[in-house]
Amino acid sequence: MIHRVLALARKELRQLFASPIAYVVGTAYVALTGIYFFQHLVSYNQLLFVYQSEGLTGGGFDQGTVPSQINVLNEVFVPAADDFGLFLLVVLPLVTMRVFAEERANGTDELLLTSGLRPWEIALAKHGVTYLFVLGLLAASAIYPAVVVARAGLGFEHLFALYVGQLCYGCAIASIGLACSSFTSSQIVAAVLGYSIPFVLLDFAWLTNTVSEEVAGRLKEIALLSHYGSFPRGVIELAEVTYFAGIAFLGWLASLTSLELGRAR
Amino acid sequence: MSARIEAQGVSKRFGSVVALDEFSLDVAPGEIFGLIGPNGAGKTTFIRILTGYWLATEGDVRVDGVSVTRERFRVQARLGYACEQPKLYADHTVDQFLRFMGEVRGLGGTRLRQAVGLSVERMGLESVRKRRIGVLSKGFRQRVALAQALLHDPALLVVDEPTVGLDPAQQIELRRIIAGFRGTHTVLLCTHQLHEAESICDRVALLDRGKLAALATADEIRQGGSLEALFLARVGRAPEVAVSK
Amino acid sequence: MTFLPAAGLVMILVGVASYYATRSLHGMSAFSVANLALGVALILIGGVAQVRAFRGFSGAAPRRVALRALAILFAGFLAVISLVVASQSWTARLDLTADELYTLSDQTRALCAELAAQPGAPIELVFFEDALLAKDVRLLVDAYADACPQVLVRDASRNEPPPGARELYTTTATTVIACRGDVCDPLGYPSERNITGAIVRLASARVPRVYFLIGHGEIDLASQADGGYSGLAGLLRDQGFDVRALVGPATAELPTDADVLIAAAPERDLLPEELALLDRYLEGGGRLLALSEPGLRSNFYSEFLLRWGFNLEDGVVVDDSSSPLLEDPSPLNLLVHLFAPYNPVTRTLSRRTMVLMPTTRPVGLARKPAPDDRLERVAFASARAFIARETAMALAGRGLDRPVDAPETEPPVAATGSYPRGDVVPGTETTEREARVVVIGDRDFASNRLLDALYNRDLLLNAVRWLASDEARIALTDKAWTPNQDPLTLQQTVAYFYFLAFALPETLLLLGIYAWWRKQA
Fold first, then answer.
1. Which of B175, C9, C53, C371 is deepest in the core (most CB within 10 A)?
2. What is the pTM of this model?
3. What is the ipTM of this complex?
């Protein structure tokens, strides 16, 4: 059972890296995160300079005159993590759109579904490999922040929490994209769906003015961003991990359902 | 090691479209059975139901008594399937693809190596073993499709339109390979080329608009002169299938 | 999938994207509304067409399989929703911030336990979701809600805040307002210390009172200048103290409600009557925080404090090992990081929590007024420090080189004294009353300019809380772990930027081109 899943996962990985899209997405994500992280770092640098200049005129106690909330975590990591989340939303549907749709369009789903593979194994392998790709993407983008943390001697725990959050968020978005891909044979449709659904689910701010406060509150509870905020601040909450794991599970279940419905058509 | 196929009143409807209508069939172990008919006759539909890819609207197919509706994974473990216009992973090499399919079939270690080696040898794929499937000729791709279907040494081999688009030499070679399974494996050969069915099948069924129109044994074909003549005599018209030799 | 739903989705996508892009300018624009409305309409029309065109799962077996798959999906959906809803009440969290910023301190927890045992209305933390700091503070406020049964969190956007909170709300800078019934407290910057301070204020039946002695050239309590004490007064008020001034020469008797008296470096002599007044105050179990400064020669130091066991010699503590850490390299600016580990005033401070004291006077000990009195030096400059006896010269920046014969001792800069008075209370080890004094050789560390520097605030608050017998809340500090230094120089930032924002993506792109080329080959 597990070796079938692993075999399929290896095949998925091979296909992922045989196609240029994974590299293009990797390039875009690492470049975007690098540039934005750099921008935040430079802004922070300038902010410190302003505070330190004030401090110099007031007697030169640089460490004392910078308010405690102005620190590298609050000023660089938290806003950067918000940007990184948005970038994941932009790049991941490009990867997920092909995973099921391409198989269906090429007819290779017939090969898989008649070879004794269980649909849940197919869904698991495909979801697992995509999450692995998300992990790789985050690992590549984490080098820059990790270097900064190491240079500052800050300890990696906070950064770890931030990246756990990114992983949860990325996997949830990827699983929505994969579920969309599994219901169609068109990669374009899969991409449109894969962008639309997470974007609509993002924070419902666009809807909250037109509905009652009660409904707005409920909508906020299911919004993706409402559950992402604690991670960049260094806190991993079981409730938030459960939320993202729940979305990933539902994405997997939706893919499985689409495979079963395909058989019953 | 060969298997019996029993199809009982199998129908498949897509809304108002009837793709297969009360189709029944009995294929004996070790037999090479031909399923012929024009495009849209229901051949591929039947094969997809047999292989567990689709569910029948009504009826059921049994392989060695195992229902494909209820226990499709047990049926799939006993069959190898080379589908029409082979659907393969173009970015894999032949070797990678066969290894992958072998692993999916539950093979591993030495057994996998031996099975891949045997399949490659049987299908004459040694020269292209390290090449990517995307760059292979159609003939080689058909062979790769057959090679993967044979990896786990299935009792039943289901082959859908294996010679479409091949040059005459490749067609002859492939038919020779399929004929080689007679007696050891049950083969369900789906084709719309009459002479192909004529030359290698022990029995041939003619499907027409989802129904079984006629059934003929090799002896009957020989006595009737040709499949075309035989079917003309039985159904009153020649089947709308290719007759090129 | 037909064209209509796909087009509808694209329109919704554009509608939502345009909303996010321009929401800070004018909220929902007509363009966004039009796209969203048209998108929904197209999806509905396309959806209906799809449903009508759906040919169904014909046959018993396909219907059974389809229904089972959909039922499993639905069950999974319900299960996930239940789990997520249930998980909202779980408090399991891993606080990986360096100082566990969002984990309540033991002091706050102890306060919560005290509150739970008291009758009375619950304390509400009115939370404003639109506040600038909302995301950061939410975690902290939730921690209160989890740990304190008597503390409730009320989301101002969903539940109408009490009138008191509405009055105190100013701008999006207001994140939390604490209320009990109709009484509300604006609590300032929403840190644990301030939130807990507000809770203490709202929960306390009696507000402890702090008097600042004035009339002898002490630092001005109302002054907002760098050297003023308006910040200190505000901090004490935030922490639940009632702060008042006391004009020494005009006072015949100290108020009986004086929990703590602060003498912020008197420059001139006190009248003999005033000294007698102070003596009586301490003898009666009074509490005094005395700050000083090099060069001050008031009788307050030479007579009064000496009588109570503190010897404030003339001189300035000079420490050249502190200066490299500061922008201003003067060895007169002490980074005090050696503290008495068991004294309640300093036990929360350590080598990591330095206090910045510019121009500090040594605080030595003299003879104890009574045998049972306890005197202790609690904060020290480093072993490299020495005491420059020529105060005026040292303050002018001369004679700051360490003499070769200077002893290798750590000059003390703060000390405490406790003076048990009256009879021993039967069944306890305490006496009827206990006077307490804290003496610190610097007045500037608590000034507006430096109060927020390093851990200056902590030393001061610890001292006041100990004096006010409020030891339980000592060390309720803002866990502001502040790596305020820039971790990278600009050159390093740019160098890493080239590698990580360009070279690494470039490599990935080249690999992608290679993959594409291979695929085409």
1. C9
2. 0.77
3. 0.88
